[in-house]
Amino acid sequence: MSKATMGLKFVFVWCMLLGSIQLSVGGRERHYKFDVEYMIRTPDCLEHVVMGINGQFPGPTIRAQVGDTLNIALTNKLFTEGTVIHWHGIRQLETPWADGTAAISQCAINPGETFLYRFTVDKPGTYFYHGHYGMQRAAGLYGSLIVDLPKGQKEPFYYDSEFNLLLSDLWHTSSHEQEVGLSSIPLKWIGEPQTLLINGRGQFNCSLAAKFINTTLPQCHFRGGEQCAPQILHVEPNKTYRIRIASTTSLASLNLAISNHKLVVVEADGNYVTPFEVDDMDIYSGESYSVLLRTDQDPKKNYWLSIGVRGRKPNTPQGLTILNYVNISASVFPTSPPPITPLWNDFERSKAFTKKIIAKMGTPQPPKFSDRRIFLLNTQNRVYGFTKWAINNVSLTLPPTPYLGSIKFKINNAFDQTPPPVTFPQDYDIFNSPVNPNATIGNGVYMFHHNEVVDVILQNANQLSGIGSEIHPWHLHGHDFWVLGYGEGKFKRGDEKKFNLTHAPLRNTAVIFPYGWTALRFKADNPGVWAFHCHIEPHLHMGMGVIFAEAVHKVGRIPKGTLNCGLTGKMLTENGHY
Ligand code: C2O
Ligand code: CU
């Protein structure tokens, strides 16, 4: 044996040893290469330009174990625009620079450049990732991220096998066209999505239901290899399946149902909930769930799985696929029509579902008291004739220098130094359109002390004109929060007595219902700068978000690659180091 091969063998043995040592500690390094690019695809049987990763749409599913460290080398293969990816639901403890939010945690990655996201996944659950720059999520930049329990540990529920469904909505206009429309006078609204996608697949104008009604439609015949052919769920009778569901929709609130089958909800946003059974479930953008499905129905039939729009007047056909009992062919059509999506504006029904979600026993409970309470009024406004969303009358416009660096290095002229208002006028009438519709734009920051316990009361209100109030799913980066309660009308003194302090579910996304309020509590225990925003992408684009900064002086060494733009970029070139 030559010296060289002996050496190689030696290295190999060492790697194996190292590998097993790392395994026994629990945390493994996992390496991924993500090339972000535009691609031509036919996700709904029509040709569109979508954003994809490594030639895939949606991007590849990341599957890791609790304690693993992910190393994702993201290369921007777009021709003319920057990009970033946010790991939705991952708290980024001690790695706030890896949160993947352009202008907040990092500079956008330029075309041709590679940025390494390195972070640990510390909690089991169903998550996803998506673009967080401009409207790249609407363009299709998303994928699933699933974190399993460490080997040997068991989930608190039993299942034989699992499926993963990533839900999204698709427009036939490009995200750029949508962006320009939203930033125009008068506003050109994006309208309702053309197609709903399940794992990136849908059927425009050729819903499977149409096939059910009229089997002769030629464009509705799938051989299975098409990019738009539905992904069928093949099941064996009398088994239990875990279905992971996450919604990365740009706009749509969804309802999911499977004909004849009950769903038992067991997980929400990577947190266990007290299991409860439903016929159908609502899923807002930014939320993820696990449900258990018992295949206890007639195994000589197939069944529909449907998703439909709720919360806004729908103008989009249902997204469909088939639950196939494997004893029969998947091409046998279900004998009854797909489940009907509950009425879009039956908000009482939506609230009833949402309120069923309570923490599983053993979930950490919220601190009994908070150190401070902030009220965030959600309104639609005008700023210099533009239509905007505003929080306490301030519409968020992100600064050119990302906050994490500018706060850490005390670059004072990087953003508005006056913090935004922590409440709104007491006499604001939430039931009518604003008397003075004008708001301002701003990029100030809510600053929290380390470990401060913060209550956020999200207050919904009437829309800009006419009568009506929309649903908004609010998502917090860097944290799970406890949902303390939902209420009708304006939050008033005494309402805090109704807070649920014993079974408050931990979530990272919570919805506010029309004309209502939602109360959240979280502990500012994660040094960094975190976005808190409506997960409806066009709303965020129109300013519907705020920025929280927590004990940024405690943030560790920020990688240079996140700082090379704006005033932090200037600092780097002037000092050469920091
Ligand atoms: Cu999934 Cu800031 O969003
Ligand atoms: Cu919104």
TrEMBL record:
Pfam families linked to this entry: Cu-oxidase, Cu-oxidase_2, Cu-oxidase_3
Cell compartments where the protein resides: Secreted
Function: May be involved in a redox system involving ascorbic acid.
Protein name: L-ascorbate oxidase
Keyword Secreted: yes
Gene Ontology annotations for the cellular component aspect, listed alphabetically: extracellular region
PROSITE patterns noted in UniProt: MULTICOPPER_OXIDASE1 (PS00079), MULTICOPPER_OXIDASE2 (PS00080)
Molecular function GO labels: L-ascorbate oxidase activity; metal ion binding
Protein family per UniProt: Belongs to the multicopper oxidase family.
Subunit-structure text: Dimer.
Enzyme Commission code: 1.10.3.3
Signal peptide: 1-26
Major subcellular site: secreted
Coiled coil region boundaries: none
Cofactor(s) the record lists: Cu cation
